[in-house]
Design brief:
This protein is of the alpha+beta class. It has four helices and eleven strands.
């Protein structure tokens, strides 16, 4: 977390580390713009692999409305959360990204202070398809739903197949359902 008082110091660090956009930024329809002045910022300060994610360094995590709500929840409840499905800054043509946030606090005497957030970014389509392929069983397909209106469906999923099973799952701060259906090959 960067206070407005320390914003210039953080932006100077971006300069020293040879980033091209040397400011805390927000993503708008016109591209990256300097983040408007506020009391504090939570910019992305580190990412791996750097080359493909370089554009996210300095990006205020509250740029995206869905992420802003998740970040507020993380801070207020002091717990980990998962965002709704969204498009990632690095891949704005897909809406299969999710971000998991975990707050990090420092404690001095009786006072806890937010130090920042750990952010883990996933492309849900790649994550689930890789698991599916590694299982090497094509007897079922799946659909994952969680929170409000977050649905990721395997391309061959068909609820009308012979065998179906729904399993309720907790996905961090959200309730979800993992649904399975048999495939034509299985039947």
């Amino acid at each position: 977390m960067i206070t407005d008082k320390n914003r210039k110091v953080f932006e100077l660090t971006l300069t020293e580390e040879s980033f091209t956009q040397l400011y805390i930024k927000t993503l708008t329809n016109q591209g990256f713009q300097p983040y408007p002045k506020q009391n504090y910022y939570i910019p992305i300060a580190f990412t791996e692999p750097l080359e493909v994610n370089k554009s996210t360094v300095g990006l205020g995590v509250s740029t995206h409305l869905a992420v802003k709500e998740s970040v507020n929840k993380v801070i207020n409840l002091k717990t980990h959360v998962i965002t709704p499905l969204l498009s990632l800054v690095q891949q704005q043509n897909k809406f299969t990204g999710v971000v998991v946030y975990y707050p990090v606090y420092t404690k001095e005497a009786e006072t806890e202070s937010l130090k920042g957030l750990v952010e883990a970014v996933f492309e849900l389509d790649l994550l689930l398809s890789n698991i599916y392929k590694k299982m090497d069983t094509y007897n079922f397909t799946y659909q994952l739903t969680y929170g409000e209106d977050n649905i990721f469906t395997h391309s061959a999923y068909d609820k009308q197949r012979f065998l179906n099973c729904d399993i309720e799952v907790d996905i961090l701060d959200k309730k979800g359902v993992l649904s399975f259906s048999s495939t034509k090959k299985f039947e």
